[in-house]
Amino acid sequence: MVTAKRTVVAYASAHGSTEEIADRIADGLRAGGATVQLCDLTAAGPPDHTALGADHLVIGSAIHNGQWLPEAERFAEMVSNERDGPVWAFSVSSVGATSTFLSPRMAGFLRSHTPLPRAVAAIEEKGVLRSHRAFAGAIGKGYWPGFGRILFRLMGGRYGDARDWDDIEHWTRQIVDDGG
Q1: 8 Å CB contact between 11 and 63
Q2: What's the average model confidence in pLDDT over 124-133?
Q3: Comparison of pLDDT for 25 and 146, the residue scoring more
Q4: pLDDT in tens, 3-16
Q5: Residue 3 has what pLDDT?
Q6: Going by C-beta distance under 8 Å and a sequence separation of 6 or more, which residues neighbour residue 75?
Q7: The Flavodoxin-like domain covers which part of the protein (predicted)?
Q8: Which of 14, 30, 38, 103 has its CA 20 to 30 A from that of 7?
């Protein structure tokens, strides 16, 4: 159980969807008894090293071009080099484990053929990754540039919010239960 543990939820968000998921995760961890600090990795300056020393660390990022945002990648590198405690990671993109705003056929293909983002793979290689979860986010018309919008439509994409809040809360409860 996470009770009485200091937990940091660090995230990098491009349009706010990942931030809202991080907020929901933090709320669930607090409900499970953790003391939680939210850390916006896209805010001015890198987070201090105290985030690395938290009892538990949850780190997540929006996915752009198949990888975490640069701020999250830099923090994940620090984590993979300096952290020995448990880490849970989440990625937010077009396709989540349980939801998507792409066609079901395209989502199924991507789920089975998309590798872990390199930042998550580095944490996994260090041996401290407890779990990684992919969540679908929300997307508006202006989020993808010209050709990307065409590709998005060809993949059966529909604009809107595809976040599966039940899945997010279920994964958060798993963190509380796994609390290590």
Answers
A1: no
A2: 95
A3: 25
A4: 458 899 999 999 99
A5: 46
A6: 10, 12, 41, 46, 47, 51, 59
A7: 7-180
A8: 14
Predicted pLDDT of residue 29: 95
CA 18 from centroid of its chain's CA atoms: 7
Instruction: Report CA Rg, the chain.
Output: 16
Task: Say how far apart CA 131 and CA 112 lie, in whole Å.
Answer: 17
**pLDDT computed for residue 178 by the predictor:** 86
Residue 100 in contact with residue 94, Cβ under 8 Å? yes
- Tell me the pTM: 0.90
How do 87-93 and 67-68 pair as beta strands? Answer: unpaired
The sign of the CA dihedral 28, 32, 36, 41 is: negative
Q: How far apart are CA 69 and CA 14, in angstroms?
A: 8
User: Which pLDDT belongs to residue 46?
Assistant: 62
| Closest alpha carbon to 62 in 27, 19, 29, 23 | 19
**What is the rounded CA–CA span in Å between residue 123 and residue 117?**
10
